């Protein structure tokens, strides 16, 4: 853990909570960037935080943004749902009334296997983590839709004999 001296004694720095981050971001917007006492104003919005901690938290945020902008952070491009299949942003103003809905790309056996592993690891309903850490090529919405079809197929297993084969019939990772 990090330590620093305040009033002559070491003090433990606590990690920032999500609530503190939200208040911090709001305070950054409200407090002028060039105000001489900006960090005191920001810290005043955060009980238990010092101006020094607010400034250090801001510096860490700036460093993170810099890494993201330089492309040093690996994240799946599939999270941008406004992108085309090739990853380029969709520049169309919107679909005309006569345009048909675009069909999805079928899941591969490998993606389904990764889905089953993620389902085992993160549990039913945690589609975001399954998407982020298991099936990185699919969005949380796509994972949820796939899961819905998978569970319906498993529930109706008794009547499956008359149906054609499906990827949802695969039950082990």
UniProtKB/TrEMBL annotation:
Its main location: nucleus. The keyword Repressor does not apply. Keywords: Activator, DNA-binding, Nucleus, Transcription, Transcription regulation. Residues 88-104 have a biased composition (Basic and acidic residues). GO terms for cellular component: nucleus. Residues 8-62, 99-151 form the Myb-like domain. One of its GO terms (biological process) is response to gibberellin. Residues 107-155 form the SANT domain. One of its GO terms (molecular function) is DNA binding. It comes from the Eukaryota. SMART domains: SANT. Residues 78-104, 144-173 are annotated as: Disordered. Transmembrane segments: none annotated. It is found in: Nucleus. Residues 8-66, 99-155 form the HTH myb-type domain. This is Transcription factor MYBS1. It comes from Phyllostachys edulis.
């Amino acid at each position: 853990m990090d330590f620093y001296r305040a009033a002559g004694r070491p003090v433990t720095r606590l990690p920032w909570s999500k609530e503190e981050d939200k208040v911090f971001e709001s305070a950054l917007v409200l407090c002028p960037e060039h105000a001489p006492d900006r960090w005191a104003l920001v810290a005043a919005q955060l009980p238990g935080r010092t101006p020094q901690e607010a400034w250090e938290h801001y510096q860490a945020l700036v460093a993170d943004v810099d890494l993201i902008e330089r492309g040093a952070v690996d994240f799946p491009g599939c999270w941008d749902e406004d992108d085309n299949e090739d990853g380029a942003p969709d520049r169309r103003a919107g679909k005309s009334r006569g345009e048909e809905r675009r069909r999805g790309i079928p899941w591969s056996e490998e993606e389904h296997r990764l889905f089953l592993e993620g389902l085992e690891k993160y549990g039913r309903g945690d589609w975001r983590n399954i998407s982020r850490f298991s099936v990185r090529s699919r969005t949380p919405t796509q994972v949820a839709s796939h899961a819905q079809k998978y569970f319906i197929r498993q529930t109706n297993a008794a009547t499956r004999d008359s149906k054609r084969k499906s990827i949802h019939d695969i039950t082990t990772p």
